[in-house]
Amino acid sequence: MTLWLSRSFFNVLRQVSFGAAVFAALSLAFSRTAAAASLDINPVRVVISQPTDPVELHVTNTGSDDLSIQVDPRIWTQREDGTDELNYTDLLLAVPPLFTVTPGEQQIVRIGYLGAPSEDFEMSFRLLLTELAPPVAERDRSALNMRMQLSIPVFVAPLSGVAAPQIVLDSIEPATDGASLTLRNTGNAHAKVLGVDLLGRGGWSQPSELARMAQYLLPDSRADVQVPGDAASIRAIRVISADGRDWEHAVPPAR
């Protein structure tokens, strides 16, 4: 599986005045700039099953301009409210950490783990691939200068070799526009939640708000999921992950 991304809105720099004519000129400049840079990343999720063996990340420039990329490893945790937190780490090594790839060419980045793996729990990291913006020419100073940043998940398997998520329903509470589900991963590996099905009086259904969530849940992390409808009418939930797993949990009747 590969990931294709064009230049995004990371680090927008603007030196413009307001007005309809200026806005039209900026739109044209953005369209021209956005078409110039794109990357193909393979794989889009790195798994290190043997810490002594580095894994290769293939970065291909499918655009029309040279791209200079900086690679920064970060240790990845999740706060109590489920939001991601990325911090500096020297446990993960990316070689080369800085490179330039010409149009149509590919750069191999070798990813190695330098620490001692956990005995029982998967470890989670992210690689931040940031485009180093080229100097802005004098004639382009009134246009948008944009850089893109990609975040690639990296997982290091535990020494036990056995790693699997387990999603449980911590609670379900009434909310302003429906109900709030709190999910927790009590397993020793990550889960990528793709959707949540609800069992109500009319059978199983998946509201559009819960389809294609694509939300990671790291071990011992939680996520609050807002669902439409009356909490009292929900009899069970089914959580679906990207690897084909699913977990069904009955919802206790409201007291």
Describe, in plain words, how this protein is organized in 3D.
The protein is mostly beta strands. The chain has two domains: 3-156, Immunoglobulin-like; 167-250, Immunoglobulin-like (Sandwich), CATH 2.60.40. It is built from one helix and 21 strands. The strands form five sheets. Strands 4, 6, 7, 9, 11 and 13 form a six-stranded mixed beta sheet that branches. Strand 6 (67-78) and strand 7 form a beta hairpin. The longest helix is centred in the N-terminal third of the chain and has 15 residues, at 20-34.
Give a quick set of tags describing it.
255 residues, mainly beta, Immunoglobulin-like, 2 domains, six-stranded mixed β-sheet, five-stranded antiparallel β-sheet, 21 strands, disordered N terminus
What's the layout of helices and strands?
Blueprint: E1 3-6, E2 10-13, H1 20-34, E3 38-42, E4 46-48, E5 55-61, E6 67-78, E7 84-88, E8 92-95, E9 98-101, E10 106-113, E11 123-131, E12 145-147, E13 149-156, E14 167-175, E15 178-185, E16 191-200, E17 203-205, E18 211-217, E19 222-228, E20 236-241, E21 246-250
